[in-house]
Design brief:
binds zinc ion, 2 domains, six-stranded mixed β-sheet, 48% helix, alpha/beta, 349 residues, two-stranded antiparallel ribbon, globular
């Protein structure tokens, strides 16, 4: 073989290698795309225990971490709590959701189920805008998202406990999103909405706010890449949920500004309770995203959230605010400017 042929030979081999590399990359990409949205591997029981502890310390009650391998049948809606005859649930459904409710003679709860179904579907475009995508049944082993509307306060508590399979004190909440995170993927067990949001006398506790807040937890939970090193911060989870739902608590009064200045460290969970301040991950978390929207725009809020799926919070802040020396200080300055002397409002779900 002369020199020229050899050169062509090398060139040819290189082309083959490039083609193979491209095929290889696209094969990996396909596998990643087709797996359930969350799948983390090789977690030890110790890591799971640490997850559970950290999540419960942060105030999170809906996320269940399990070391068990789940089987595909567990995503089947036939296994929903409401699909069991003995439970006495009726349902309406479409391509994305199943709303479970308890029938009554006047059809009052069927009507509430219809309103809920309409509201959650209408929230999907907004979810796509903030989270970059919406998690449809096709993305999640064809599971439709169950939403439960128990008609009484005590049935609200019972439904949560049945879905969680262990008791939890969540009755003070207005809604909850319960999901399992396992090595087999993300499995939403369902959203439960408390009966009194249907006749709330203020917007902050109304169905549209609570349903959107909970749907946010579903989408964020499904996109977040839980790993041994990556657990969502409580103020990001609850703050973005209230921001998306438009709950809009005003941070008012120097006390709440001082509280944010002194205790709301963006690199950590916010303290759930501190002195007179409670549920701080909600109102202070939303305050941060309201500030980001006002100063940097909605796209920056989306970029921030989408970066948290795969990146620890300190790196998120560096990546999203490369020109800021101190984003926490900018936040405190912004709320100081807007402040009026009244107490802050908080709500919890
Ligand atoms: Zn929440």
């Amino acid at each position: 073989m002369n020199r020229k042929h050899k050169t062509y030979g090398h060139f040819f081999m290189m082309v083959i290698a490039l083609v193979l590399a491209a095929v290889g990359t696209s094969a990996v990409y396909q596998i990643a795309r087709n797996r359930p949205p969350i799948a983390y591997g090789n977690l030890s029981p110790e890591a799971i225990a640490r997850f559970k502890k950290q999540m419960s310390k942060s105030g999170e009650k809906g996320a269940l971490f399990t070391i068990d391998q789940l089987n595909l049948a567990q995503w089947d809606n036939e296994n929903d709590l409401g699909a069991q005859d003995s439970a006495g649930w009726s349902k309406i459904e479409d391509n994305n959701f199943i709303i479970y409710y308890k029938d009554d003679m006047q059809g009052v709860w069927k009507q509430k189920a219809k309103i809920t179904l309409k509201l959650v579907n209408e929230a999907i475009p907004q979810m796509k805008e903030i989270f970059g995508s919406y998690t449809y049944p096709k993305d999640i082993n064809n599971r439709k998202l169950p939403i439960y509307l128990p008609p009484t306060r005590s049935q609200y508590g019972q439904t949560i406990n049945l879905l969680r399979n262990e008791p939890v004190d969540a009755e003070s909440s207005l809604g909850i999103t319960i999901y399992k995170v396992s090595q087999s993927g993300f499995l939403p067990l369902g959203i439960v909405i408390r009966n009194d949001v249907f006749d709330a006398d203020n917007f902050q506790n109304s169905l549209v706010v609570v349903a959107t807040h909970e749907l946010t937890h579903y989408v964020y939970g499904s996109l977040f890449q839980f790993s041994d090193k990556l657990i969502p911060k409580n103020w990001v989870t609850e703050g973005i949920a209230d921001y998306t739902a438009g709950r809009s608590p005003q941070v008012q009064g120097s006390d709440s500004i001082n509280f944010i200045n002194n205790y709301c460290d963006l690199l950590n969970d916010f303290p759930i309770e501190h002195g007179n301040f409670v549920d701080n991950q909600y109102w202070a978390g939303e305050s941060f995203f309201d500030f980001v929207e006002e100063k940097y725009g909605k796209e920056t809020v989306s970029k921030f959230i989408q970066t948290t799926y795969t990146t620890p919070i300190d790196s998120v802040i560096l990546a999203v605010f490369p020109n800021s020396n101190n984003i926490h200080k900018e936040w405190v300055e912004a709320i100081s400017k807007n402040a009026e002397p009244q107490s802050s409002i908080s709500a919890n779900n």
